[in-house]
Each structure stands twice: as structure tokens, then as C-alpha cells.
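Is flavin-adenine dinucleotide placement plausible here? Inputs below.
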Amino acid sequence: MRIGNRGGTGVAMKCDVVVLGAGPAGLVTAIGCAERGLDVRVLDRSTFPRPSVGEAVHPGAEVLFERLGVADRVRKAEFVRHTGIWIKRQNKHEFIPFGETAGCAWRGFQLWRPMFDQILLDRAKELGCEFLAPCVPCEVVRNTRRLKLVTSAGTFETKVVVDGTGRNRWLARRWRLPIRAFSPPLVARYEYAEGHSSDLDENPLFVPTRDGWEWIARVHKNLYQRIELRHTQNEAGFKRPSNGFDGLRKVGRPRGADVTWSIVEHSATLQYFLVGDAAVVLDPSSSHGIFRALSSGLLAANCITQVFRGEKRLGDAAVAGYKAWQRKWFLQDVNRMRKFAPTRAHFTFARSGLAIAFASGEAAKAFDTKSTRSVGKGNGR
Ligand SMILES: Cc1cc2nc3c(=O)[nH]c(=O)nc-3n(C[C@H](O)[C@H](O)[C@H](O)COP(=O)(O)OP(=O)(O)OC[C@H]3O[C@@H](n4cnc5c(N)ncnc54)[C@H](O)[C@@H]3O)c2cc1C
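Reply from A.M.:
I modeled the complex. C-alpha cells:
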């Protein structure tokens, strides 16, 4: 770790872009910016390797791995691969394959995050990004042309800050950017277990339940993950595991993650970009949190390059395009996912004042009718 003017005194270190958070979204933004010759610093509160959730990725992500120059390393990492997903309804199993080309099945990835994130970090470093960890941002001050970012490892003077801090949403909280929720509060509970289950194969199992869903997947060698989400009774704790998971040996304690569907409407300006979960959170049944993190990182890097061209018109267009893209994809997902939400969840939406937005069938209107809830304006800490 490079230590600069610790505590924010002395001369600030100058760079083009500072990326907060070294998850997939932050690292891909860093890779994209560094490829275009920008001077990039990435900081994370944790040293690598560190545990992280979010594994199952559609085979289509391979195109992005190629684009990022990490496809060979991802293939060599020997992640668990799956050709589709089992869905269990009323005790009947149905297999939904991803597809095939000339008899060869497409295979998704269970990206074991400590390894996958390390692959991305290695690529970012290869391209010249400097990585600081453990390091946390403390304060960010806007001047007309530059930003002053005070961190636990010193002060940076930069043109653009990228927030890739995931569901922590450091910048949105710091600057009290409005965060709009499109669902009642949702908590995904997850746990891990070791061993071998003859009821489970390489392909994840998705089980819609009366008030939510359960997901079980082999995520690493002999390690399985179980996630459960209930639209109601979130306080009641885990259901008794079933579907082959109950016979396995539990590892660690069950954990919970806030996965309330939400978006930071102002996901970019000429001075900051929010990428991945820092911009948009959906519950894991959306099935593409990682894919969105990678895509938003690539797009943000493109837009940041436009900002650096110095022509305000180009920069403004890039920012507007980025915000529209984030918003459009999020609203498409919300509309798609609410079709599968159980009836009781709709009842919950209605009670929380979201019915107006959803009844019309166009979640987009919610932005204009102010019928969504603001879940956080940040507490400035
Ligand atoms: C239980 C669960 C299961 C999921 N399963 C899947 C799945 O199977 N497939 C899928 O595609 N998606 C899944 N997701 C979603 C997926 O995990 C996220 O969409 C994805 O990780 C977002 O990537 P990111 O880079 O935006 O954020 P993250 O991966 O959360 O990375 C954020 C980074 O920022 C760092 N950070 C946070 N705060 C600070 C701070 N203040 N200062 C410095 N650094 C900071 C963290 O240490 C971390 O390295 C799942 C989510 C959950 C909760």
C-alpha cells in the first residue's frame, strides 16, 4: 500500500480517476480507464483475497471476459460451470438449459469471488492502476474543476471519482443523493455448507416458494451456497434448509444482505460515476448483478474517456447517456421481476405506496409521479 499525506495534510497526490471499491464494477471501470491511458487509483477497505457473494453468471459473460483481456485466466481458474438451471415447482423438477451451438452446450460460471476479483485486480495492475488497501474514503470536496478526496491513505486531487462500493454506496450516502426504492425492504439470507449432496449436481436449483424463493448452487469444489428470500416475515429468520442442502456440513454462520430494489437516480455527473450495486440494487433473482457490474464498469469507462476529451458537449452527452442506460435497464428488470413476485408481495407494495407505480405497468412513471419511496438520503457519515 502506498502511504501518501496521511490524514489529509500536505500536498495532494494528483491522478485522473479514483475508484472507490475493488469489486467487479470498480475494477472493470479501472481497467477500461487505464486501457485508455488514464492515471487510475483503486482503493478498497479490505485486503485481497476477501470473501464476497455473487457467483452465478450467464455464459454470455464470456464476451465481456474476452473484452477485458481476462478470458484465458477465467477459463484456467476452473470455476464450477453449469449448463442451465433446475427449477422445482410442486415437487417437479424442470431443467432450463442456457442453449447450445452445434451440439455444444453453453456453460455459465460460478465465479468464486475471491479468485475472480483477484483476476480483475491483476489485470488492472498490469495496465498500471495503483491499488491501495486497506484504505477508506473519508471526505470528498468538490471544486469547480477537480475533486479533493481525503482517504485513510492520504489525499488525492482527481478529476473523476467512481463509486464502486457496492451496496455500501459510499458516495451517495456522503452526498445525500436520493435513493429510490421500488420494493418493500428485502433481505437475502445466505449460508454455505461443505460436503457432497447426491440430490444436487453442477446446475443450480431455483425453488419459487409461497412468499419468495430459495436458491442452492455448488459454488466451489465441495462447497454449496443456499440463498433464501422472503417477501414477508423477513424477521422470522431462515427456513429449515431442504432440497439436498440439509445433509451438508454448515460452514460459518448464516448472513443477511439488504437487497431492496433501489436506484440512485443521479448515477453520474461530469465529476462522478456510480457503477454496479452503488447505482442499482436488485435481489439476486434478477440473476445478473455481476453482469450489470461488469457492463456498467465498461460503459462508465467509455463515458469517462469522453469527459477527459475536454469538450463539455461530449461529456454532457456521455453523462446523460449513462444515466438513461442505468435507469432503463433497472426499470425493465423491475417490470420483469414484479411479474414473478408472489401475490402477498404485491399486497406489501400496495401498502407501501408503490401500487400506483406498478398498477400502470410502467415502472418508468414512478420517477415522475414520485410514488416511490426514498430509502436513503444518507447520514453524511
Ligand atoms: C446473497 C447474494 C447473492 C448473490 N448472488 C448473485 C449471483 O449468483 N449472480 C450475480 O450475478 N449476482 C449475485 N448477487 C449480486 C452481486 O453480488 C452484486 O451485484 C455484485 O457483487 C455487484 O458488484 P459491485 O462491484 O458493484 O459491488 P461489490 O461486489 O459489493 O464490491 C464492492 C467493493 O467495495 C468495497 N467497499 C465497500 N465499502 C467501501 C468503503 N467505504 N471504502 C472502500 N471500499 C469499500 C468492498 O470491500 C468491495 O470490494 C448476489 C448478491 C447477494 C447479496
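Short version: Confidence is low (pLDDT under 50) at residues 1-8, 343-372, 377-381.
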